[in-house]
Amino acid sequence: MRTRRLLVLLAALSGVGALPSPAFAQATKDQARLVFTVSAGAVGGTRLWSVSNQAVQSLDPADTFALGRRIRSTLVFGAGGAYFPGEHLGFTVEAFLIGLGFEDSCRHVFASGSSANAEVCQSIEGKTKAATSVILSGGMMYRVNSRKLLSPYGRVNLGLALSNQSSLRTSGEFVAANGIGTLEVYSDDRNTRIDPSLALGVGLTAAIGNSSNIRWEIRDNITGVQQVTGTIPVYGSIPPHKRVFKHLFGMTVGFDMVLERRKGRRY
Asked: Which CATH architecture best describes the domain 32-260?
């Protein structure tokens, strides 16, 4: 009888020992190694430049405008990939499409009585300009808990921003004898520019299947853009300017397709 009881107890203990614990199951979860991501989100705007006393001399004495421009809030879309040779550190490439549009402001500081100049300033006030900028970048990503359901990470990307809209050119419309006329206050000899760009981001991935993740990311897009730095004696010429770096903070939500996984070890 004692021998039978001992055999039953040993069988029960061996059965319990054969069941993997939840912690062990999580520790041996497969790990994403090669990932392709598509994402969408939004970034906030920021002030770009302002000039307080630009003379516009169609009559004598000259009218004076206070001009300003800001970068508008906009939607963003991205596509990229990441390769992780190990547990934590990976390498990334990305194409990031950001609508780098502008919104202008104008205030009449001194009015000579010219109705045309008044109309020019009125047409500049609140005027919006659509633009598209593509940021091509590469960098590094560091993740933790790469074999768990939730995996936080941080990234640094360095690249180039290609824009198709001048951040300097400023013009307004007025009613002329033969129709609508255009007065160009600031001109620019280039429509497209290439500027450096840096992205700093933190985020979280959540596994939703064997080959897919959902990704949330908060990012600071530090983008180079040309800024007007002063007035010009005669309107219609290129203003003094310089490259500045603007912080465009945003948030994106993405979908990961896991193209290659590293199998967890089981003992």
From this structure: Beta Barrel (2.40)
